[in-house]
Every structure is written in C-alpha cells, then in structure tokens.
Amino acid sequence: MSAVLGLPVSTGTITGLVSGFAARVTGTVVSIRKRLLAKPVVHYDETGVRTEGTNFWVHSVCDSDHACLSQ
After folding, report:
1. What is the arrangement of strands in the sheet containing 43-51, beginning at the earlier edge strand?
2. CB-hemisphere CA count at 13 Å for 54?
3. What is the C-alpha separation between 68 and 51, in angstroms, rounded?
4. DSSP element (H, E) containing 35
5. What confidence tens digit (pLDDT) does each residue in 11-48 have?
6. What is the pTM of this model?
C-alpha cells in the first residue's frame, strides 16, 4: 500500500490481513479440492518461477469450472 497509496503499512498489518483472508477461504479451498479429486479427468501442470534468485514451483490442478494452485 505504501507504494500505491503512499501510506505506511506494517508487517503485522499485512500478516493479519493474510491470516484473516486464509481463515475465510479455507472452506472454499477444501471444497474445490474435493470437487477436483472427484473428477475423472483434470489438467495438471507445474511451472517454474524465479523470484529474487530463488527457484520455486507453482503446481496447478484444474477443470473447466475450478482451479487450485499451490507452491
């Protein structure tokens, strides 16, 4: 937010926002995962991402209605 709005934002504020969001979407994420696991066919992909000199893998599973991404 400081870069966009010029307002200082503490690490604690960001941590609280992310934790609150995670708590609110947990049920939805579980539901999407269950629906994807129940499908006879899904698309699976993994893509490499390099951030600040470190390689990470992003894994995705999707069908025509749902998508689930994880690291």
Report:
1. 43-51, 54-62, 67-70
2. 2
3. 21
4. helix 11-38
5. 899 899 999 999 999 999 999 999 999 999 999 999 99
6. 0.67
